[in-house]
Amino acid sequence: MKTTLKEKAKKLPTTPGVYLMKDKQGSILYIGKAKKLNERVLSYFIKNKQHSSKTIRLIHQINDFAIVEVDSELDALLLECKLIQQYRPMYNRQMNAFNKYKYFEIRIKNENISLHIRSTPTKKNCFGPYSIHRKLSELKQILDELYSLNQNDYWHHSFSSNEKRLESTVIESELLNAFRVNNQQPQTRLKEQMIEAANNHSFEKAAVLLEKQQFLTRFFDRNQKLVLTNQAHWQLLWFPVGAKIKYYLLYQGFVLNSRLVTKRTVEKYSPKELADKLMPKKLPQEVACYSKDQVDFINILYSYINRHKECRLIDLDPFFN
Known about the structure:
Blueprint: H1 2-10, E1 17-22, E2 28-34, H2 37-42, H3 53-61, E3 64-69, H4 73-87, E4 102-109, E5 112-118, E6 126-130, H5 136-146, H6 154-159, H7 168-181, H8 185-199, H9 203-231, E7 234-241, E8 244-251, E9 254-262, H10 263-268, H11 271-278, H12 295-307, E10 312-315, H13 317-320
Antiparallel strand pairs: 1-2, 1-3, 4-5, 4-6, 7-8, 7-10, 8-9
Helix pairs in contact: 4-12, 7-9, 8-9
Organism: Candidatus Enterococcus mansonii
GO cellular component, one term: excinuclease repair complex
Keywords: Cytoplasm, DNA damage, DNA excision, DNA repair, Excision nuclease
């Protein structure tokens, strides 16, 4: 059987696409994407010492496979995510647990401020959802300690009792703006503590503070992409695919339509005219907060744009306002 599948894989096209591995019952075991379908699928049926134990178990269960050809690698990435969420194959881990994604709430009651990791969003001061949900506990711990928010931490409050406590309005402003506009204030406070520790020759403490500062920078940089995407309504994305151009109409980070055209078409029409050609009859509703099953598509799209310098992203909001 594996020999037959190997021969079938050799005949696959060299185009981008998605492949679906199936068992004897026709159930989908695994969904993957490929820049070149024939090379990627064939790799499963060639002996390779670098195959993980998980991959080997998968290969033993493969009875057949199917493919879907697409125009570009980005199309393959987006379709892969859509199909994984639809079929939830047992061998797919990424994008298969979106129901476990979490939200981060800054709860403000009177002058008390507390941080909470939630499975469902609240209407106010709630951010996310975050696919890196395991990192949220670390984020909460860093911010709790930095702003002395954990009222039950007797040791910490006793240790820091001689330090001047920040006003709740200052803490509220810094935390909300860190999530909304990435104001860098928490990182600045950690940097100040790090410099003080180094000056006191507490180098181990300074090293820990540096790690926390770097963690916050990575988190809030990623969070800012979600925020900006949510605020930008209409965008036009295009990049070369061989001798042609693939362009996409985006609304709040979601692909509404796309088309593969000649370079001459892109040169001939304005961004607004190109967008009009893809405009759906029914306009999409505005998204106030991304749902758990939506955020993976946003991360995939903008990670792809950031990694590929040939991508061109044009803000269309001025044309539609």
